[in-house]
Description:
Elements: H1 32-46, H2 54-66, H3 68-75, H4 86-103, H5 112-131, H6 139-159, H7 165-172, H8 176-186, H9 220-234, H10 238-249, H11 254-261, H12 265-283
Helix pairs in contact: 1-2, 3-4, 3-5, 4-5, 6-7, 6-8, 7-8, 11-12
Amino acid sequence: xxxxxxTAPSRTGAPEVVVDLPWIEDGGRVAPxxxxxxxxxxxxxxxxxxxxxxxxxxxxxxxxxxxxxxVAFAARRFRNRGSGEMEDVIQVGxxxxxxxxxxxxxxxxVEFTSFAIPYxxxxxxxxxxxxxxxxxxxxxLQELRVDLARSKETLATRLxxxxxxxxxxxxxxxxxxxxxxxxxxxxxYVAGSIDTPGxxxxxxxxxxxxxxxxxxxxxxxxxxxxHTLGPLLRQLDDRERTIIEMRFGQELTQAEIGRTLHVSQMxxxxxxxxxxxxxxxGLLPA
Length: 286
């Protein structure tokens, strides 16, 4: 059946469609060559239909289905970004296709495919720019990363070596600080694994970045405590410092300290407890 009247229901249960438009059961099965011809017909009629009507929806949805192959074609260039994201890429590309359908003007005498591809690719690029950065980076720096990559490639070909920051800044008409900021921000695009081999040797036996990472030093907390304790020890009088040094430095017992200082063990115990309380009070936050 090539055309159905808008008021005549199909005997197969198909919805009512538009005069002069063929009924297409599955637009996705239309050959690309036929889709180009039919798209022009559907686009022409779409401009005459009232938005929101069943006829308008049929024409628009059929256009989308017939041109999904354009989305698949554009998405192929992004397939190396990760297979897990390809479904999202197709969905985003379809949004670009819909925008192209809504904005296409037949009076421009441009093929719809030539008009739609930039919309589809642009939408996909925007998706990657906004969602695939491992670290959130301002849009200005995301766009600068792309400019830097292109400039580095151009200058490397021209100079026969990697360009310097100064050369990149001159090529992009930016300050050197702006170029450095862009280069640093570009590191946030992909997060590397700490299990990646370090250096230039990528063999499995090469040391990994994780092997060069330090662990918590068990003596660090003790060092911090002693560093904080230093000023408090200097505030003690000579006898208090002597008792502390003999008890914890020389590891003498209270009885041995008492015999050395010619006082009783009980007196040493009272002096030691009083001194330790003074130090604890100074260590603990107010």
